[in-house]
Every structure is written in C-alpha cells, then in structure tokens.
Amino acid sequence: MKDNDERGGQMKLSNENLQNLPAHVIKPLYDRSTLEAGIVHIGLGNFHRAHQAWYLHRLMQDGLAHDWAIIGAGVRATDAVMRDRLLAQDCLTTLVALDPASETVEVSGPMIDFLPVEDRNGPLIFAMSDPKIRIVALTVTEGGYYRDANGALDTAHPDIQHDAANPDQPRTAFGAMVAAYRNRRNAGVGPFTGQCCDNLQHNGDVLRATVIGLARLSDPELADWIATHATFPNAMVDCIVPATGPSELAYVRELGIEDAAPVTHENYRQWVIEDSFCAGRPPWEKVGATITDDVHLYEAMKIRMLNAGHQVLANAGELLDLPTIASCMADADVAAFFHKVEATEIAPQVAPVPEMIPAAYLELISARFANPKIHDTTRRVAFDGSSRHPGFILPILRDALSAGGDFSGLALTEALWAKMCAGTRENGTEILANDPNWGNLNATALAAKDDPQLWLDQKAIYGSLGQDEAFAEMFAHWLGRLWVDGCRPTLRTYVA
C-alpha cells in the first residue's frame, strides 16, 4: 500500500515506496535486498551521503560493487538522532543537485544498516571485527583527530587517555578501530583499510598516526601489527554540501517526497584517491573518481584554495551579516577581498595539477561559491574556526612567510576571525557560539582588542607562528583597523 503523507500528498521514503515516487526522481535500479556489507562508515552526515555514498550508489546502478554496501555508525550521542531518521526510511537518502541551470533529484541506497550508538562502542567494534568488512571510513570533521598544535596525537586529551586505559571499552572512533584490529589479529583475520574522508592534508597519514599512536599507548605489539599490515590511503574529497534545515525539508516535500534527512548539494564532485587498500576496494574510477599517486598535489590545491577560501569569506561575511556564501560572493567588497587574497597570496603557494592551474581553479571555485541555489550558510562555513584556521589558513601563512611572499590578506583573515569571535556583528547583532572552544575564543578576542598579541599567544592554534614578528605586526595592524574603522572600510583599504 502506498504510504502518503496526509498533509500534502508526499510519498514517504522507503523501500516499499521507491517505485511510487514521482517520475522525475532517479531511483535505485539495483535490488537492495541482495546487497552485502563491505564498508563501515563512521559519521553519517550530509557530506558522506552526497559524496562517498553517491559514488558507491553510481557503481551499484551500473551493476557493480553489490558486496560493498555501507553500514552506518556513530560515536556521539547525537548520532542516534540520525540513526533513527535513516532507519525509519530504510537508510535511503534523497539527493538534490542544485545548479543555476538545472536540478536533479535522486534517491541513493547503498547504505543498508545503522549500528546502535552506545557509550563503549560494542556494536561498532563487533561490526568492524567481521572479516566481511574490508574498509572502515570516517567523516568526523577536521578537528576530530585529536591532534595537538604540532599535528601529533594529543596524548593528554581525556578521551585518548581513557581509551589507552580502557582499550576494550573505548570512547572514540579510533579506540573502537584499535579494538577491532585487535580482534581481527587474534582471530587470524587480516586488517581492514582505514579510509579518512575528511578535509585534511595527508588525511590518510593523519588517520594512520591517530590509530597507531593510540594503539601504541596500550598495546605496542598491536600497533606494530597495524603499521605492518593495515593501510590508510590519502584522499582528496570535494563537494559543497549545505546543512539541512527547515527550508531544505520543505523543498523536498514540494518535490513529492517525505524524507527526514534529505541532502542538497552542488552539481560538482571530485574524489582523488591513493590506491592503497589492503583488503580490496570498489572500482570507484569507473564512476569518475581519480586514482593516483599524486593525491597531495590535488589536496593541496583544493584545501588551500577552496577550504581556505571559505574561511577568507566566512568571517567577513559573519561580521557583515551576509547569510550565505553566495551572498558573500555577491557583496562587492567581500568578493574583491576574496579574489585578491586568493590570487596574490594563496595561489602562489599552490602547485598546478594535471589539467588544472591555480588561476583556472580559482575561476572554478568562484563560480561554485557564487551559485545562488546553494544555501550554504556563512555560519556553517565559519563553524569550528579553531580547527579550520590551523588546518587551512596557517599552513599557507607559514609558507608565505618562509618564501618571502605576500601575507597581508592572510593576516587580515586571522584578524577577521578574531573580530568575529568577539561575538558582535557590524550591525550590533550577536554572533552566537560557533566553535567548540567558543568561551575561550570569545574572552580572548575581547581582550585582544587592547592587546592583539593575546590572540596569537593561543599556542594550541598558532604554535610558534604567533611569535613571528612580521606576522604579529601585520595582524595587530589589521585587528586595530577592524575595531576602529569597521569591517567594510578595512576590506576596502586592503584591496586598494
């Protein structure tokens, strides 16, 4: 029987209703009841479902990779909310690709289950210990890898200390992976591949260092076994995927679908992957992924120009109360600031990749950022600056300083972030907490109005960079201008 929503005639998303969805909706061509799990994915946010899961869905549409289905997982209490939503609709997701010239609606179905979310991660460890699971993938955000200011494992973090002392009852995803590796080794089963899908340079190396470093704290022999037998391929991922809010939910209902967790995204994807999988992998290259040994070149261009570019836009946008990235690009002052920083300070620190030079990539991302149909909120992009600035902006700053290149706009970007963290927009409205460390950032930003060096003395963020005299002087100059003149006049001063 068709399951229609009485409020507006929408079709509830489910296996039973797939063939009853509106004709314009692209539906799975494969029999989902025959899919077998091969991947556990931790962190079932919008990005994963619009990106990695979509590549697998496309393979399945072509009759391939039916033994690589995804089991979803989470390690935070809030992940249980997404679990309930997805299980209620048979783990299906509506994907809406928004392009200025077209729109595509597709239901994706490579995910077949979502594990219970429990404090000690027992169901997750059990699932990853199964020999049928050959890849464990993660999207846990850039700041989720327990790294200190120098990029090493933060062994002083309470979560890491807990997992080192309680390896059979871990709190973190990485502790759960270590426990599963132990089970597989003890059972004479080979390891799974650990696949990081977050926006981090050398993301596979980061995941490897976190997992092996944590294992070494409780079981050095296991750490050696993981280091010898498991693989952690580097990869670059790219697709702009806004958060889902009331407007996105309403939009999908207007399309005739009742989906509790739909995803809107741009009509662009890129996935560049190092071919280092100890237990095999799906043939992603058949649906557009790039398999290469030069991942670092691709990821450097993307992270430095796109992800860093997002931070260049977002902090200014928050101060000027511009609600979306597209509205930032439509603002003449913010757009001019963005283009100058990208062209004169970031692009010189980026090497070309096959078929793409930095100038052409800047044109590409500028068009993507300006897409008015993508309601990617400035607030979302500005979230967790204490992880994103060290990950995206500061490496470029260090290289520019070392090479004797221009860095004034990058210093202004840091000053804009500090001013934003003071918590008040130019129009007097409040900027609500938008960082896991907001309390400290807010207090430091307010104190830095009179003493800018206090902001740079946050060693967990800036490390030794905060003591660089040239950078500190330029940062203090711009922060002072922001407090005295305001955001828009300061941007114009820089551009001029």
Automatic annotation (TrEMBL):
For the Mannitol dehydrogenase C-terminal domain, which residue ranges apply? 294-482
Q: Which UniProt keywords apply?
A: Oxidoreductase
Q: Name one GO molecular function term.
A: oxidoreductase activity, acting on the CH-OH group of donors, NAD or NADP as acceptor
UniProt-listed InterPro entries: 6-PGluconate_DH-like_C_sf, 6PGD_dom2, Mannitol_DH, Mannitol_DH/Oxidoreductase, Mannitol_DH_C, Mannitol_DH_N, NAD(P)-bd_dom_sf
In this protein, which residues make up the domain named Mannitol dehydrogenase N-terminal?
38-286
Q: Which Pfam families match?
A: Mannitol_dh, Mannitol_dh_C
Protein name as it appears in the record: Mannitol 2-dehydrogenase
User: Which organism was this protein described from?
Assistant: Yoonia litorea
